[in-house]
């Protein structure tokens, strides 16, 4: 996974989750330092529909496997 | 919500999420300082079945509304 590519892709996540991984709205989770395996599973589940959320189901749909790995690596890399 | 009651209830969460809110297994998320609204929704969704996870679907089922509020307040209170 490529943290730099994850950071670039995270521009579309920042309104809710921040580029610092600290959520900007109360209903979104903080992601900074979150476990990478957990983040990969969350994005895959939103993409597949196994997990549902109005916003996340929409934005996760077009993500590739690489996008998901890179985003998870980036948010994990921010540390807690 | 009652943080002390949440701490007491969290004894059943600690194997995976820790009493410090730092996950003890890679597939579980860190919860320390997580947004309270997000944690309440996660537990309600696991309880209702809207969100599925082998472990969480099982352990969330018997939680009362108060348990959920107290657990969310406790893990939020730990800070990031």
Account of the 3D structure:
The structure is a homodimer of 80-residue chains. In chain A, 55% of the residues lie in helices and 0% in strands. Chain A has 80 residues and is an all-alpha fold. Chain A is globular, with a radius of gyration of 11 Å. At the A-B interface, helix 3 of A face helix 3 of B.
Please report the first level of CATH classification, the CATH class of chain A: Mainly Alpha
Mean pLDDT of chain A: 97
Tell me the helix content of chain A: 55-70%
Could you say which overall geometry of chain A the principal axes of the C-alpha atoms support? globular
Q: Which architecture name of chain A does CATH use?
A: Orthogonal Bundle
Largest sheet: number of strands, sense, barrel closure of chain A: none
Supply the CATH superfamily name of chain A: Cytochrome c-like domain
Rg from alpha-carbon coordinates of chain A: 11 Å
Low-confidence segments of chain A: none
How are helices and strands ordered from N to C of chain A? HHHHH
Task: Report, as a whole number of angstroms, the end-to-end distance of chain A.
Answer: 19 Å
CATH fold title of chain A = Cytochrome Bc1 Complex, Chain D, domain 2
The largest chain-to-chain contact, stated as pair and per-chain residue counts, equals:
A-B, 19 and 19 residues
- Fraction in beta strands of chain A: under 5%
Work out the number of β strands of chain A.
0
Task: Name the quaternary structure.
Answer: homodimer
Number of DSSP helical runs of chain A: 5
> Strand pairing plus helix content of chain A: what structural class?
mainly alpha
Q: What is the domain tally of chain A?
A: 1
